[in-house]
Amino acid sequence: MKDYVTIIGGGLAGSEAAYQIAKAGIKVKLYEMKPEKFSEAHSNENLAEIVCSNSFKSNLLTNACGLLKEELRRLDSLLIRIADETRVPAGQALAVDREKFSEKVTEEIYNNPLIEVIHKEVENVDCDDGIVIICTGPLTSEKLSKEIAKITGSDKLYFYDAAAPIISKDSIDFDVAFYGNRYEQEKKKEESIEEWKNRQNNQIESYINLPMNQEEYKKFWNALVEAEVITLHDFEKREIFEGCMPIEVMAKRGTDTLRFGPLKPVGFDDLRTARRPYAIVQLRQDNLEGTIYNMVGFQTNLKFGEQKRVFSMIPGLQNAEFVKYGVMHRNTYVNSTKLLDETYNLKSNDNIFFAGQITGVEGYVESISSGLVAGLNAIEKFNNTKVKITFSENTVIR
Q: Which single residue of 69, 125, 248, 384 has CA 20 to 30 Å from 282?
């Protein structure tokens, strides 16, 4: 048996697994193909890069994801700790400065003497005399995807995911835009216009809101559904992830679909007009300095020029400076319910674990959780304890 555990993929799950295993005094070889090779959606050299939204979802313990985060905190999750340290205002959600988050994770992993980071694309999985955790995520390279299909004896499955654009705050027109957290407005129904203006001037809330009247919304909707999208290789036959659907796909489901989705005006009153807007576009803070904001729910596959043209039609964004345009990418995953046991161990080869989005879990926190569970069980396997660490059905981790 090798004197280390191999982890392939330095994303959220891989970084968490590496930390847990090293904490147990076991050496780790962590393979990450960046910066030697980048996927179509990644752009920086750090580990644990966040590609889509910067939100880790609700922090409330009455919410499943909030409770999952609290369980992970109590289990000493490295990535949840760093998410807390790099959080940006987002109401009841845990949102992070994505650059600082990945920088801090990278620093922690690189500074751990038991973890060796190897920047290389893995094409073959060697598990004959050692333990391997595959955490290559939804953007697994083509060569490794073929290797995984061979190991599992199953064709890989996939769906398509997308990321939203990011905008410079300085380019937003605050004669139109206003600050406010959804539903918090409902608690302030009796406030005066002076109190409302004071909150705007002090920038108390974490979201920037762009109200639209009916005519503005209709023009925007028509332009959106007619805009040109990027066609990439085998994107003609798409399996769209419902939880991260491109805004243009959602819009084509009906004229008012967006108004009951990411553009719903519920929970807001614009006291300047003394009425509720017909639709609301929300922008969420994306860094600690509050200089850039992402467009909530605006994952897209529109051509970059079309994003600039169509999204600039939104009131308040007529002079918008796009720091980053939205992109669409293919997500690869394995048939976990058939191939893996409850510890993410491959049933046909107990030297191999999987973790992260490649297992089909949905979301950042869920990926971190799977990395932690796979890491803890890799420790037991390495120590030959014959123990499997599973969690009670009363936990969210389960």
A: 69
